[in-house]
Design goal:
Blueprint lengths: L9 H7 L6 E5 L4 H12 L3 E6 L2 H14 L3 E5 L5 H15 L4 E4 L14 H23 L7 E5 L12 H21 L5 E7 L2 E2 L4 H4 L2 H8 L8 E2 L4 H8 L10 E4 L6
Helix pairs in contact: 2-3, 2-9, 4-5, 5-6
C-alpha cells in the first residue's frame, strides 16, 4: 500500500474533514479504487461497510482493514439486486448505528468494437454501472439524514468517446446526469450528491496490460499528467466530496484524471 497521507496525519485529517466517526458504505470494495477508497476512508476514522459480489474477495479487504486498524464490516451483495441492497443498508444501520454516506463505486467494462459487441454485454455494463449505482444510492438515501453524502464513481471516459469502450463510456456519461438530477432532488433533504471521475488507473485487474510498455505508452500519451494513476490517489478526493463541511458542493463531477478528459 502506498498512502498519499502520512500515517501520523490520518486522525487529524479525518477530524478536520468532519469524517471521523461517520459511517460510509463503499460498493466494489473487493479490489481497485473501491478497495483503496474503503480502506483510506477507514484510516481517516470512518466506519466502513464494504460491499462486493464475492464473499471470499471481501475477506481480503477485511483482513487488510484489520491490519490497518480500520473499522470494517463486509456485506456480500450484487448492486443490481434491489432487495439485496436494501438489506445491506438496513444491516449497516443495525451494525453501525446509522448511515452517513455512500460511495457507489461498483462497475464493470466490456471492451470490444461496437459492431461486434453482443447486446447482452452492452446491457450488462449499463445495468451494473447505471442501474446498480442508482439502486445503491436510493437504498442509502432512505437512511441518510441531513449532512448525508452520496459519491458516484464516474470516469474520464464520460467526456471522450474512447474506441471500443461504447457501453462503459455511455454508462459513465449517464452517471454524470444521474448525479445532477439526484443532487437537485435530494438537496432539500440535506443529502449531497457528487461524483469522482478517475483516469486510467493501475489495479490488480489491469496490471498485466500495463506491463506492456507499448500499451502503457499509448495510454500515457493521452494523459497530460504523464503517468498512470495509483488507486490511493482517489482517497483524498473522495474524502473531500464526502466531507459534511462542503454543504454547497452539489451535483458536481470532480475529474481527478491527470487531464485525460481535457
Amino acid at each position: 500500500m502506498t498512502s498519499f497521507v502520512p500515517a501520523d496525519q490520518h486522525s487529524a485529517l479525518g477530524s478536520a474533514l468532519g469524517l471521523a466517526g461517520r459511517t460510509v458504505v463503499v460498493t466494489g470494495a473487493t479490489s481497485g479504487i473501491g478497495q483503496a477508497v474503503a480502506l483510506g476512508l477507514g484510516r481517516l476514522g470512518m466506519r466502513v461497510a464494504g460491499v462486493g459480489r464475492r464473499a471470499e474477495a471481501l475477506e481480503k479487504t477485511s483482513a487488510a482493514a484489520a491490519e490497518q486498524g480500520v473499522t470494517f464490516s463486509a456485506h456480500a451483495a450484487d448492486v443490481t439486486d434491489e432487495e439485496a441492497m436494501a438489506a445491506v443498508m438496513a444491516d449497516v444501520v443495525a451494525q453501525h448505528g446509522g448511515l452517513d454516506a455512500v460511495v457507489a463505486n461498483a462497475g464493470i467494462a466490456h471492451v470490444e468494437p461496437a459492431a461486434d459487441m453482443p447486446i447482452a454485454a452492452f446491457r450488462s455494463v449499463l445495468d451494473t454501472n447505471v442501474t446498480g449505482a442508482f439502486i445503491t444510492a436510493r437504498a442509502a438515501y432512505r437512511h441518510l439524514g441531513r449532512g448525508g453524502a452520496v459519491v458516484f464513481t464516474s470516469s474520464s471516459f464520460a467526456r471522450r468517446g474512447f474506441t471500443d469502450w461504447s457501453p462503459y463510456n455511455a454508462s459513465k456519461a449517464a452517471v454524470g446526469m444521474l448525479v445532477e438530477t439526484l443532487a437537485q432532488e435530494w438537496a432539500g433533504q440535506g443529502v449531497r450528491v457528487n461524483a469522482l471521475a478517475p483516469a486510467a488507473t493501475l489495479t490488480d485487474v489491469n496490471r498485466s496490460l500495463f506491463e506492456d510498455p507499448e500499451f502503457t505508452a499509448g495510454v500515457v500519451a493521452g494523459i497530460p499528467g504523464g503517468r498512470i494513476m495509483d488507486t490511493e490517489e482517489f482517497v483524498l478526493p473522495a474524502a473531500f466530496l464526502l466531507s459534511p463541511h462542503n454543504e454547497m458542493l452539489l451535483g458536481q463531477t470532480l475529474f481527478v484524471d491527470g487531464g485525460q478528459s481535457l
